[in-house]
Amino acid sequence: MAFYQIWIRSFKDGNGDGIGDLYGVYEKLEYIRSLGVDGIWFSPIYPSPNADFGYDISDYRDIHPDYGDLAQFRKVLARAHELGLKVIMDLVVNHTSDEHPWFQESRKGRDNPYSDYYIWRDTPNNWDSLFEGKAWEYDETRGQYYLHLFAKKQPDLNMDNPKVREEVKGILRFWLDMGVDGFREDVINFISKKEGLPDGLPFLPAINGMPYYKDGPHIHEYMAEFRKVCKEYDCFQLGEGPLTTVQSALKYLTGPERSLDMMFSFDHMMADCFYTEYIHRPFSLPKLKKAFTKWQNALNGKAWNALYLENHDHPRVISRYGSERFWRESGTMLAASYLFQQGTPFIYQGQEIGMTNIRLKSIEQYVDVSTHTNFHRYHLKDSLEKRMERIHHSSRDSSRTPMQWDHTEHAGFSEAEPWFYVNPNYERVNVEEEEKDPWSILNFYRSCLALRKKSKTLLWGSYREFFPGDRQIYMYERAYGKTRYLIVCSFADKPVRVRMPKEYVDRKGKLVLCNYPRGEREELYRAIKRPDGEQGWFLPYEARVYRVSVTT
Ligand code: GLC
Ligand code: CA
Q1: Catalytic-role residue among 240, 329, 433, 470
Q2: Is there an atom of ligand 1 within 6 Å of 52 CB?
Q3: pTM beyond 0.85
Q4: Are residues 310 and 217 in the same domain?
Q5: DSSP string across 86-141
Q6: What is the DSSP string of 419-457?
Q7: What is the pLDDT of residue 215?
Q8: Which ligand is nearest to the CA of 55?
Q9: Residues 288 and 392 in one domain
Q10: What integer pLDDT is reported at residue 532 of this predicted model?
Q11: What is the CATH number of the domain that holds 151?
Q12: What is the pLDDT of residue 521?
């Protein structure tokens, strides 16, 4: 299996209003299928005032009018299924929008049926929210504070209330009855909060309350209730677990309490900035490799990894872990760095064509709530220029620019002015252009997925990393039965000499995939006067996959 993630507002506008929608998705289903994926994950497409672009839901059982309606959704679902694509929805139940009718009722007073749907207090504790100042907001009507771990317009649901859990189950059934195949469960490890909501440590900005809401006291009971419903439908459950550790992930993924099929981890997203400019450091390959290998080893034989490098919360990976100068080379190499690991790969819209970060001139042009908060919260003493540089590097908006379909106006995303800025590099970076080039990032993604699909070793094989201390090369092997694959990725922007494990030297390994065209490669090896190129030297951001069959 492999999944494609759609963040609909920027995917494809089908009705000419500048906003991506389900009509556009319908048009592009064949394209998605052509990548070699087997499923689609939709980031939220429900009605929402868009304080957090869909992650603030005001109605769980409908489609946002910007994106179409239920009839159009059913049409997309049916066509996706015809094409052999599964469809999973985003389940966002840690919080709702403050415009959800439950919250509108709840704020009215302390004795209506919805009064305990949210977390209300007379006096707030010291928690910070992750997205917007303190975690508590005073509500005039009710005369109390409500908890919001994210933005102010995202009040946290009170999952300790059995009625709320029944609502969640109703939502699951609603979509499962319609025929969807599963859910990606948003910040699901935050839904149970510690009784009494104790004060957090004062010196951890933004995450001071986390020890009391991450993997909280009743989390596994609640998850079991949801699992039971999902089991009836045999559906797929994928959890998003911000800052989850391997140990706690295994509790969701294994044993009698198993409540999720897979979990997104964040460790490998912290090799540089991790979507807040608060933590911002240069990219470190050893950190990335350590995170990859930790998850590969810990889950091997016990659970299954969800593999990704990009999504709607993280800036574009070429701009972070690769190089915009070596755009094609690093974009393809990064694909090989994760698509051959053990697990199920996820590809985020635009990643497959190597979209890169956008650089908007002023902070006012950015629309993501957390980008603004971070800008006004951290590094205030730095020059404006430096602060904007951090925003360019860390903003979630960089992954939310309209998808680049061709070189025409608005990148073929829409006939109208798009709702958000198109990256000016669209004339070069776009689907149409890359369809024509056999060595494009797009076609490399296809080759990787095709290779994975036909190899039991790449699907099921064990994982082993070579030379973990190397600061330029990431090298890993997959082994199963008699076949082994060696994946070698150079993260260097110049040619580097690479030691190979002995099973692969002297052309014992057959080169089955490389991100440089053969002719060009040989010429370049000659140019760097390394005729032994194929074995010992790697070009900038070169990636190769070797196969050996063990005969003994
Ligand atoms: C998850 C989502 C993110 C959202 C947050 C709050 O991390 O991926 O986009 O802002 O949860 O719902
Ligand atoms: Ca539209």
Answers
A1: 240
A2: yes
A3: yes
A4: yes
A5: EEEEEE--SB--TTSHHHHHHTT-SSSTTTTSB-EESS--SPBPSSSSBSEEEETT
A6: SSPPPGGGGTSSHHHHHH-TTSHHHHHHHHHHHHHH-HH
A7: 97
A8: 1
A9: yes
A10: 54
A11: 3.90.400.10
A12: 81
